[in-house]
Design brief:
repeat; Double Stranded RNA Binding Domain; Znf_C2H2_sf; two-stranded antiparallel sheet; two-stranded antiparallel ribbon
């Protein structure tokens, strides 16, 4: 037997009330017919009633919510306002979920996602983000780009998009230029400088010059025993014994890699170095395993330590100290 549920919404104009429906016998099966109040018609099955509601100009039916509205405007307002629907009223288009709906708005409409506001054109959206106290601290006006945080905006403003490459690498025979000290130090630590400077040399220079331990923990910034001289540091490497039957496994952090070279590249990175660099701000004291990581933290102005002259002077001194190095 087909059991149908009554609709109690005041805007609904059809019902499935059993008391009003005729009963038919087909063999030994008792069937109840569906009835449309508005059209005063019976339908042999619920499916045929649904087809009628979908196609008839007399109905404005929301199939998902099973509600019939008095007008198309009422149905459209329901789609726009209901959290059950991801509907674009401008394109009269439904989406499977909010992410698809939001991506559509970002691509085709002047829409502020966080405020859920639409604007007539991109200029209106631009002015909204430029003037709004909610967005202005995270909005790059020249690029018309909104960032997730103020720190992300600062990183963007410190990039080569907005800053000249006016910091010259002090390495011998290297003419590379950079937009920030952190980018320069990362270049040196990576061993890509033509002078031969690498991370071990950078750490040695810092250890020798940071005599007051402004940014370093001397107990952690040490050269490993038997590591090959003053320009060396503790290094790790793996062999075929790192294969665990499924992948090459790092014996320090247990991350898995598809190949032995990938594992050794991971071991050669600063991932497992001691966190010897410290943010000099006494209330912060965050630790980093590379000088470039500390510089990026300081340049982000997240802690405000860059305002202190000794810190700026110390960083400038480390960079200038690289000019005196003769790599070998």
């Amino acid at each position: 037997m087909l059991l149908l549920t009554a609709l109690n919404s005041p805007c609904c104009r059809f019902s499935y009330q059993r008391t009003n429906l005729p009963t038919l016998l087909q063999g030994n099966i008792q069937c109840t017919m569906a009835w449309c109040d508005t059209c005063d018609r019976y339908f042999p099955t619920r499916f045929s009633l649904i087809q009628h509601l979908r196609s008839s100009s007399l109905h404005n039916w929301c199939e998902e919510c099973d509600v019939d509205f008095d007008s198309w405007v009422g149905l459209k307002e329901h789609w726009v306002q209901s959290p059950q629907h991801d509907y674009c009223q401008y394109c009269n288009e439904h989406f499977g979920d909010y992410d698809d709906y939001a991506d559509h708005n970002d691509q085709f409409h002047a829409w502020c996602r966080s405020c859920n506001k639409f604007f007539r054109n991109d200029l209106g959206l631009h002015e909204h983000r430029r003037q709004s106290p909610i967005h202005s601290s995270r909005y790059c006006v020249p690029c018309k780009q909104l960032f997730q945080s103020e720190a992300n905006l600062r990183s963007h403003m410190n990039s080569s998009i907005h800053r000249p490459r006016d910091i010259v690498c002090p390495g011998h025979n290297c003419n590379a230029t950079f937009v920030s000290q952190s980018a320069l130090i990362l270049h040196l630590e990576a061993g890509t400088c033509r002078s031969g400077i690498n991370r071990a040399i950078v750490n040695r220079v810092v250890r020798e010059r940071d005599t007051n331990n402004i940014i370093t923990d001397p107990s952690r910034l040490l050269t490993g025993p038997g590591s090959g001289g003053r320009n060396s540091e503790v290094t790790y490497s793996a062999t075929g014994a790192a294969w665990n039957g499924y992948a090459y496994e790092c014996y320090l952090c247990h991350n898995e890699f598809h190949s032995l070279p990938a594992l050794n590249q991971h071991l050669a990175s600063p991932r497992h170095l001691n966190k010897a660099y410290i943010c000099p701000l006494s209330s912060y004291r965050e630790r980093f395993n590379t000088l470039s990581g500390l510089c990026q933290h300081i340049e982000s102005e997240r802690c405000g330590v860059l305002r202190f002259a000794p810190v700026r002077q110390a960083l400038d001194g480390f960079v200038s100290g690289m000019r005196t190095i003769t790599a070998y």
